[in-house]
Amino acid sequence: MNTTNNEEGCCFETQAIRTQTERSQYNEHSTPLYLTSSFVFDDAENMRAVFAEEIQRYSYSRFTNPNQTELVEKIRIFEKAEAGFAFATGMAAVYCSLFPLLKTGDHIVSCSNIFGSTRGLFSNTFPEWGVETSYFDLNQVYDVERLIKPNTKILFAESPTNPGVDVLDLAYLGEIAKKHNLIFIVDNTFATPYLQNPITLGAHIVVHSATKLIDGQGRACGGVTVGYKKYIHKIYLFARTIGASISPFNAWVLSKSLETLAIRVDRHCENALTIAEYLEQHPAVEFIKYPFLPSHPQYEIAKKQMKQGGNIIAFGIKGGLDTGRTFLDALQLCSRTANLGDSRTIVTHPASTTHSKVPAEEKVATGITDNLIRLSVGLENTKDIIRDLEQALTTAQ
Ligand SMILES: *Cc1c(COP(=O)(O)O)cnc(C)c1O
Description:
GO molecular function: carbon-sulfur lyase activity; pyridoxal phosphate binding
Bound molecules: pyridoxal-5'-phosphate
Number of domains: 2
Number of strands: 13
CATH architecture of the largest domain: 3-Layer(aba) Sandwich
Family: Belongs to the trans-sulfuration enzymes family.
CATH topology of the largest domain: Aspartate Aminotransferase, domain 2
Protein name: O-succinylhomoserine sulfhydrylase
InterPro entries: Cys/Met-Metab_PyrdxlP-dep_enz, PyrdxlP-dep_Trfase, PyrdxlP-dep_Trfase_major, PyrdxlP-dep_Trfase_small
GO biological process, one term: methionine biosynthetic process
């Protein structure tokens, strides 16, 4: 609604900068913040027609707002989607993109390596409403058809995965979804729309936590879902009813962030590759996974479906749980926090924090070993990041 210059024929960087809400009567250059909960109507007839959905215009910010529209338009264009909606958080986007498409008795097939809260939704919340989920692990991607039942409605995947940084063959999963008439939903948070476009590989719906690389500076939470109109319309009606919409302020921040997404992600990826190469040759490192290192088990698939390798590295330090914790404690520059995709490099130890409640056998299946470290490479100079990692690795050994 009311975006001018959406520049669909242009390149990514140009779209990110020039997709812009229509100027107001003041002719401002940069999009202002529309911090308003509602919009006034011209007359009673206009008001009636808007409520009857005969004409489209802004009425209430729980439904839509110019800042939220601009953010969504950008992601919609990047992801080559028909429509979209923006949410308060990434999890609101995940939840609202699934719930209105499901009914009691439906079945989900999902990769087991997915974001922890999404897994909680599938394993704890949905069963209460009669929706069951079957999981496949990384070794079963090409066997996924075995899990599909007559009542399977949704195929769900994330790639690269969190925290293992595994890569799933999205084009293959897209074919399976098409063959069995499933709705294929991809959480594209780790790749961002700059590195990977799941809709071109067969996805119907793409979900983003905008809190991560899209914001890129650890400031605002947000989520965006884009996809085919027939699904997005249902998702939109549900989301506006329950009030899961993004605030105009966060939408404004995140849309501004998108103007620099390409150059930021380019540098994130360049830094991550430098650090991955450093870690790979380090004697204290037992294993390392980074999608664009030739040693990554799905390197060929990553090369095929991603433009670059992203900013997340998974590696194991020689030793056990204590070595991982000592390494974390020894860091002086890198941050110990659970976020990712920030300009600041972040290190986490999943086994003792985000994934400490995951049962032991599930941890093994999803590759969360006691010595696994997840590194979200930031935009500091790699010389400084490496110096910090080096002294912490030495202390931990
Ligand atoms: C962070 C994250 C989410 C949830 O996003 P929030 O904005 O924290 O709600 C979902 N999926 C993935 C892959 C994430 O990394």
